[in-house]
Design a protein that fits this description.
globular, about 350 residues, binds zinc ion, eight-stranded parallel sheet, TIM Barrel
């Protein structure tokens, strides 16, 4: 494949060196932290502050977290910094919904380029600041979410052949996002919360096209999500099948995130670790959400589960997904600091 003829981004050598030494720490959930800020519609659109943002959209923007990189960049940079100071080596850009497909819900398709560049710059600024403070290398992962559509499953039970999105729609949308994430200073690209592997394959394809344009290959992290107790992704794959579907991308890590919490994730992680020849990354939710959609699992509880992943030699990178705070990340970093990273089989 053409992408493998490109020179590697310099971050790869730094990431590899750090990953040889220890289990690397990924940050926690931005969404939960943003909620605690209690931002209003005016805060989201930036219409009350100094940032004049001509959004050209008549949709309400409250809840459009990705937009905050443009309208509240200082707040986003501060949240990144909290995770970095808690021990994160790698932080994810706040761009989970930064595609034209996901932003269509807010009528902000035209802003996609700007909000991804801004999202990457917020994370870059925080990472550079943290690295200057203590000298430890920090990395910005340009985060690419699954979008809210599935390329391999029909949303209409009466029309199983129907698709709300095609591979090429996704390829184009992901390409636009990834090029902007690279422009904003990302060190690597993280394709995450994959429930439909065909969406992820479109993102991988788009990433390779963007790397070819940039003349450099960035490391890839690829993370699936197991959405039900039977241990399959929404598109019906086991962890083994998922690995074989993405192995061609030769990712820096493959792994699992989100969904049912660390305890439920462990058997699937064990299976993935048994087949994958890349490093493994796992970042579970803080347990299962309660009836109000809130996460009750405390930092020590989540960390105790992650400590088990580490003790069993299953992980190279770990952190937290939904409901995890800087305190969770601090506790996780603390419990894995003396554990050896999983051995990578060539
Ligand atoms: Zn999650």
């Amino acid at each position: 494949m053409q992408a493998f003829k490109l020179p590697d981004h310099p971050s790869l050598a730094r990431l590899r060196a750090a990953a040889e030494e220890r289990i690397l720490i990924l940050d926690g959930a931005m969404g939960t932290m943003i909620q605690t800020l209690g931002l209003s519609e005016e805060d989201f659109t930036g219409s009350s502050g100094g940032h004049s943002c001509h959004l050209h959209s008549d949709h309400a923007q409250k809840g459009n977290n990705d937009l905050l990189a443009l309208t509240q960049p200082d707040a986003i940079e501060d949240l990144h910094l909290q995770f970095l100071r808690a021990g994160a080596d790698i932080i994810e850009t706040n761009t989970f919904s930064g595609t034209t497909i996901a932003q269509a819900d807010y009528g902000l398709e035209e802003k996609v380029h700007d909000l991804n560049v801004a999202g990457a710059r917020c994370a870059r600024a925080a990472a550079d600041r943290a690295e200057a403070e203590d000298g430890r290398p920090r990395f910005v992962a340009g985060a690419v979410g699954p979008t809210n559509r599935t390329a391999s499953i029909s949303p209409d039970v009466n029309d199983p052949g129907f698709r709300a999105v095609t591979f090429d729609d996704l390829r184009v949308a992901y390409g636009q996002q990834i090029r902007a994430l690279i422009e904003g200073g990302s060190d690597l690209i993280l394709i995450e919360t994959i429930f439909d592997t065909l969406n992820a394959k479109a993102a991988i394809f788009a990433a390779f096209e963007a790397f070819a344009e940039a003349g450099q290959r960035l490391p890839l992290m690829i993370s699936g999500t197991i959405t039900d107790a039977s241990g399959r992704t929404l598109s019906g794959q086991t962890p083994t099948a998922f690995w074989h579907s993405v192995a061609h991308a030769r990712p820096f890590t493959v792994g699992l995130n989100c969904a049912l919490g660390a305890e439920a994730m462990r058997p699937h992680l064990t299976e993935l670790s048994g087949v994958a020849t890349s490093r493994i990354c796992a970042y579970p939710n803080a347990g299962l959400p309660n009836a109000f959609g809130e996460y009750d699992e405390g930092p020590d509880e989540t960390a105790a589960q992650v400590a088990r992943f580490a003790a069993e030699g299953l992980i190279n990178v770990t952190g937290g997904c939904c409901g995890t705070t800087p305190e969770h990340i601090r506790a996780i970093a603390d419990v894995v600091k003396d554990s050896a990273p999983r051995e990578v089989r060539a």
